[in-house]
Design a protein that fits this description.
Helix content: 40-55%
CATH architecture of the largest domain: 3-Layer(aba) Sandwich
Order of helices and strands: HEEEHEHHEHEHEHEHHHHHHHH
Largest sheet: 8 strands, mixed
Radius of gyration: 24 Å
CATH superfamily of the largest domain: Alpha/Beta hydrolase fold, catalytic domain
CATH class of the largest domain: Alpha Beta
Number of domains: 2
Strand order of the largest sheet: 1-2-4-3-5-6-7-8
CATH topology of the largest domain: Rossmann fold
Structural class: alpha/beta
Low-confidence stretches: 1-31
Mean pLDDT: 89
């Protein structure tokens, strides 16, 4: 579906193709009026004895593949869902992280739910043990039953949510595989979490990552520095830790860049290099096989990755190789309109009009069924080749 791409000297073709794919995916036809980024789902918690709601973002490929995905559990979901799901969509489209399901946990009583201990004079505190039990016994199983999930789970918490993330790390370290703890209020209850870290940090973890940040918030520095020093002194095996101070951000602005950079830290080895892509499908598959082994999850090369390789061949005018790659993408993602459109383009450039029309037609057929945002683009490709107006 990439027409009239003009490359200037020095422009990275891979990046250009990824960005084109990313932005072309949000174009709307005139009759479209809504962009939906997720849904709200409610259920009753027996543990908490109340109704709870979650906000659910599903990856772009969820509707036309059978694959499963890692899950990011986002505390204060009603505040952070929009920008966090946008970060996930953007980074995954660039191939920097995997596609991820985002579960925004909507608050009912965050002081109660996120506070690890009861503090005299503070009403409704000390509910973190029950809330963690709710997440482990009800929320996570609910998500696993209703969505195609992989066992790799990330917990993101800001401020008091960061306090809860730290509590989860210390008391149930195997429940999540990675944490992004943003300006955690771990000085709560006279530095209780800092004191517990010295006693409760294990000597060995199962490939756990903990990314902690803070903005320009001097009242947080001493506690976080002491917590950071404790982790470094104990140096637990299998525990990767990074602490960053964002001096140009405050308590309200620091979550966005923390989530962006935190996901980059967690999946630092996810990105494919141009060298790997240039070696072909087998090298790409080997890269993701090694990633799958490291993270202990099923990982399949994304549709966009093979598309990048196909368009590199097109840029080199090697249409036969491009067709082979796009045909492989069709085999792996038969429910995607875009893979047929790309294959149609390769056949058109090779001069096989019949095959090009066949694949453009398939792209239009699928796009109309799912009301794809690029239906108009696919239709114009087909009409142009048929000589229709």
């Amino acid at each position: 579906m990439y027409k009239n791409i003009i490359l200037k000297k020095g422009i990275n073709l891979t990046l250009l193709i990824i960005l084109f794919t990313l932005y072309s995916g949000i174009r709307l036809k005139a009759e479209d009026s809504r962009i939906t980024i997720g849904e709200r789902v409610s259920f009753t918690s027996e543990i908490l004895q109340e109704d709870r709601s979650i906000l659910v973002y599903l990856p772009q490929s969820y509707g036309f593949t059978d694959q499963s995905y890692p899950v990011l559990y986002l505390l204060d979901g009603d505040y952070h869902f929009h920008h966090a799901s946008g970060i996930v969509q953007y980074l995954s489209a660039l191939g920097l992280i995997p596609e991820i399901i985002v579960i925004g946990v909507v608050n009912v009583n965050r002081t109660r739910d996120f506070s690890p201990t009861q503090v005299s004079g503070l009403a409704e505190t000390g509910g973190a043990p029950k809330f963690l039990k709710f997440m482990e016994k009800e929320l996570i199983p609910f998500v696993d039953r209703n969505y195609r999930t992989l066992p790799y789970k990330i917990l993101v918490g800001h401020s008091f949510g960061g306090t809860f993330a730290t509590y989860s790390l210390l008391t149930s370290p195997d429940l999540f595989n990675a944490y992004i703890s943003i300006s955690p209020f771990i000085m709560y209850d006279d530095n209780d979490m800092v004191k517990k870290a010295k006693k409760m940090l294990k000597s060995k973890y199962n490939n756990l990552k903990y990314y902690m940040t803070v903005g320009n918030e001097p009242t947080y520095f001493d506690a976080l520095e002491e917590f950071s020093n404790t982790i470094q002194e104990k140096s637990p095996k299998g525990f990767e830790f990074n602490y960053e101070v964002y001096k140009n951000d405050n308590h309200g602005s620091v979550p966005h860049m923390s989530i962006y950079n935190g996901l980059g830290y967690i999946f630092s080895d996810w990105k494919l290099t141009d060298e790997i892509i240039s070696k072909g499908v087998e090298a790409i598959d080997q890269h993701y096989a090694s990633i799958a082994k490291k993270y202990g999850i099923e990982v399949l090369p994304p549709e966009n990755t093979l598309n990048q390789l196909g368009y590199q061949h097109i840029n080199n005018k090697d249409y036969v190789k491009a067709i082979r790659v796009f045909e492989e993408n069709v085999k792996r993602f038969p429910k995607s309109a875009n893979v047929y459109d790309s294959l149609g383009e390769a056949y058109e450039l090779k001069g096989d009009k019949g095959k090009a029309i066949e694949n453009y037609s398939k792209a239009v057929e699928i796009a109309n069924k799912v009301k794809h945002a690029n239906t108009g683009v696919y239709e114009s490709n087909l009409k142009r080749l048929k000589g229709e107006k």
